[in-house]
């Protein structure tokens, strides 16, 4: 996915992760890549990747397990 640099980055990253969850790339109970890996993949800062994942947590699409990372929530 190519980031549109004229628009805020975190909603674009969140939308792509959401698309992957809805499309089955990331399955319920599966751990998401870490924010460092996501930042590298999308060529954004780690804080941008963290904000994107946090927004998905607010939506209930992912949950956090302390010390282990973010996981896809059951549908």
Automatic annotation (TrEMBL):
Gene3D superfamilies: Winged helix-like DNA-binding domain superfamily/Winged helix DNA-binding domain. InterPro entries: Bact_HTH_transcr_reg, Tscrpt_reg_HTH_GntR, WH-like_DNA-bd_sf, WH_DNA-bd_sf. CDD domains: WHTH_GntR. It holds the Pfam family GntR. PROSITE patterns: HTH_GNTR. Keywords: DNA-binding, Transcription, Transcription regulation. Residues 7-75 form the HTH gntR-type domain. The keyword Translocase does not apply. SUPFAM superfamilies: Winged helix' DNA-binding domain. This is HTH gntR-type domain-containing protein. It comes from Streptomyces prasinosporus.
């Amino acid at each position: 996915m190519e980031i549109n640099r004229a628009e805020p980055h975190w909603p674009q990253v969140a939308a792509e992760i959401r698309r992957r969850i809805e499309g089955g790339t990331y399955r319920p109970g599966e751990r998401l890549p870490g924010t460092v890996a996501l930042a590298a993949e999308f060529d954004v800062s780690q804080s941008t990747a963290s904000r994107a994942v946090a927004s998905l947590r607010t939506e209930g699409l992912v949950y956090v397990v302390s010390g282990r990372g973010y996981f896809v929530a059951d549908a």
